[in-house]
């Protein structure tokens, strides 16, 4: 449809393409650096030359518009090259979740119709186990830091570095329609088969620009600027590491890619490169802070965005006590992902420390160009302060699931993207996720937020990690069951003591009275999903199996 008042036709260079993100950095930061573990340091000039060569090589492999290219790698400079070169060549980058089972990962490669795969040697066994799904794959390229072997029985196109060195660089990246699919990945499938979520060049560019703008104009408590040192702590296969590698590269910031997430290596890189900006799920932060060598890092220079799960005030306080500037954010796979960050409004900045903590753990303030609405079961907006389902509109939300119209229509019913999250908008306009709708605990007809109980228990000094689920209850339908991991050195604390602590919090009236029915169980570990988040589905299944 052409607009009634359309001007002259669009000219080359005016489409929102990932290619456009790279123009400025070529001259702004040619001597800036992109580092891989403690193995390799490239200047931006060298890295950009590699991207151009990768483009030529992809072309030689027959990759072009309409193709899908799968990647199985740890977070690396090579992955970053593929982040740009694959979409810029017109193909879609499929960031394969390497923590899925061979059956699931194979399913995603087959469903995505990947014709070329870039696979780190560490994932060759996984690749071998998914062979029945790989009949459509024309080339497998091996990524290696040392010796490598060709995968058996698959068409191997060689090793990345060797082939890249021989490739002829592209002189000009193609003009593409801005709605061309740029990235594709699969949701971790808490129910049913994994679903393919894709984003276009236009969406990636708008997400990059808006997240970058928001993080640049708001300092309090966390900003991201061109002079920051960036290290991702969210895997690049998980919603493109929240899109921040695109932003860091556009800015020409110094970047450090950690490869496989090994806690000691992460701590070493954070300290050696004096990293100032990162982002992760809360469980990863906890893991780093509680590592025996966490004292080797000067945390005071770090600014951290926490997302993917609620940032509990107790966790934020602990991070702050180490000197970290921390803030919560919100998003999901289907939203590219960032739609809200809990920056502190200037008019609220002078509040007490407790008020400020309350704000920065409030889930987030919507980014520019994001419309938020809270609706009831009939899709009607509820009054401010009331809990309902969060629905969204924004230029960078996925249009639907690949090849699954029924689920796409369900996601977008009524013209709004349904997040499946219970939430409220408070009087200051901040978004507060109260719970995933499927995690809400139904006690005798009343709905209780599992996050509320988690936050209350996390206030006890002995609690290192906590997760709450609803378990079947003959009298109440469900009651809350909290699984708690205690801090090292405080293992003598009993579940009874934690129950007493919870009751004292309930007495103060800040959480629902029926939370009094919570049973507290001490465990040595809480199950995690493939992206490191608490896996409540598995917890519920285990609890059910125990009852059966
Ligand atoms: P999955 O659903 O497989 O975990 P996502 O990474 O897309 O995949 O997770 C998005 C979900 O994570 C959101 O729908 C929400 O339930 C939860 N989430 C993300 N950020 C927050 C937050 N700041 N507070 C509470 N929950 C969050």
What's the short version?
By secondary structure, the chain is of the alpha/beta class.
Mean pLDDT: 95
* Largest sheet properties: 7 strands, mixed
CATH topology of the domain at 18-26 and 35-198: Rossmann fold
Ligand list:
adenosine-5'-diphosphate
How much strand? 15-25%
Fraction of residues in H or I helices = 25-40%
Structural class: alpha/beta
Biggest sheet: strand arrangement: 7-6-5-3-4-8-9
Question: How would you name the CATH homologous superfamily of the domain at 18-26 and 35-198?
Answer: ANL, N-terminal domain
The total strand number stands at 25
Shape: globular
Gyration radius from CA atoms, angstroms? 24 Å
Report low-confidence residues grouped into runs of 5 or more: none
Counted by DSSP, the helix tally is 17
Describe the structure.
Among the domains are: 18-26 and 35-198, ANL, N-terminal domain (Rossmann fold); 440-547, ANL, C-terminal domain (GMP Synthetase, Chain A, domain 3, 2-Layer Sandwich), CATH 3.30.300. The chain is α/β, with parallel strands linked by helices. The protein has 17 helices and 25 strands. Helix content is 30%, strand content 23%. The strands form six sheets. It has a seven-stranded mixed β-sheet. It has a five-stranded mixed β-sheet with strand order 12-13-14-15-16, sandwiched between helices. The radius of gyration is 24 Å and the shape is globular. The longest helix has 17 residues, at 44-60. It binds adenosine-5'-diphosphate (ADP). Adenosine-5'-diphosphate (ADP) binds at residues 187-188, 190, 307-310, 328, 330, 332-333, 363, 419-421, 433, 436, 533.
């Amino acid at each position: 449809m052409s607009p009634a008042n359309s001007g002259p036709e669009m000219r080359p260079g005016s489409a929102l393409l990932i290619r456009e993100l790279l123009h400025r950095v070529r001259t702004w930061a040619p001597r800036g650096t992109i580092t891989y573990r403690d193995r390799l340091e490239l200047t931006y000039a060298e890295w950009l030359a590699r991207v151009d060569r990768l483009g030529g090589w992809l072309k030689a492999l027959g990759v072009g518009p309409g193709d899908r290219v799968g990647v199985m790698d740890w977070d690396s400079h090579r992955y970053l090259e593929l982040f740009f070169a694959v979409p810029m060549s017109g193909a879609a980058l499929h960031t394969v979740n390497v923590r899925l089972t061979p059956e699931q990962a194979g399913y995603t490669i087959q469903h995505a119709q990947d014709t070329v795969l870039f696979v780190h040697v560490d994932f060759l066994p996984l690749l071998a186990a998914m062979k029945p799904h790989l009949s459509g794959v024309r080339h497998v390229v091996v990524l290696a830091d040392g010796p490598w072997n060709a995968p058996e029985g698959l068409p191997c196109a060689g090793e990345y570095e060797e082939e890249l060195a021989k490739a002829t660089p592209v002189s000009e990246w193609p003009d593409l329609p801005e709605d061309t699919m740029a990235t594709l990945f699969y949701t971790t499938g808490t129910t049913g088969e994994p679903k393919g979520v894709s984003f276009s060049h236009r969406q990636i560019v708008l997400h990059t620009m808006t997240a970058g703008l928001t993080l640049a104009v708001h300092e309090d408590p966390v900003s991201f600027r061109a002079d920051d040192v960036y290290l991702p702590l969210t895997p690049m296969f998980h919603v493109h590491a929240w899109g921040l590698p695109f932003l860091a590269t556009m800015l020409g910031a110094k970047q450090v890619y950690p490869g496989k997430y090994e806690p000691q290596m992460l701590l070493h890189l954070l300290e050696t490169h004096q990293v100032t900006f990162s982002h992760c799920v809360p469980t990863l932060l906890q893991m780093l802070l509680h590592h025996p060598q966490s004292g080797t890092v000067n945390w005071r220079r770090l600014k951290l965005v926490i997302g993917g799960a609620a940032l509990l005030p107790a966790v934020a306080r602990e991070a702050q006590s180490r000197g970290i500037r921390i803030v919560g954010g919100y998003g999901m796979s289907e939203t590219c992902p960032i739609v809200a960050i809990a920056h502190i409004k200037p008019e609220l900045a002078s509040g007490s420390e407790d008020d400020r903590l309350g704000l920065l753990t409030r889930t987030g303030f919507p980014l520019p160009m994001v419309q938020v609405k809270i609706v009831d079961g009939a899709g009607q907006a509820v009054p401010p302060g009331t809990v309902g389902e969060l629905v969204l509109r924004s230029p960078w939300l996925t249009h639907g699931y690949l090849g699954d119209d029924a689920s796409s229509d369900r996601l977008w019913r009524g013209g709004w993207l349904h997040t499946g999250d219970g939430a409220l908008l408070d009087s200051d306009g901040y978004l507060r996720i109260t719970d995933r709708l499927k995690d809400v605990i139904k006690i005798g007809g009343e709905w209780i937020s599992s996050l509320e109980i988690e936050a209350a228990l996390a206030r006890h000094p002995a609690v290192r990690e906590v997760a709450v689920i609803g378990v079947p209850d003959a009298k109440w339908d469900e009651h809350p069951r909290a699984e708690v991991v205690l801090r090292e050195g405080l293992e003598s604390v009993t579940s009874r003591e934690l129950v007493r602590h919870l009751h004292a919090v309930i007495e103060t009236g800040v959480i629902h009275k029926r939370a009094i029915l919570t049973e507290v169980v001490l465990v040595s570990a809480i199950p995690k999903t493939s992206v490191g988040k608490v896996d409540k589905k598995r917890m519920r299944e285990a609890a059910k199996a125990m009852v059966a």
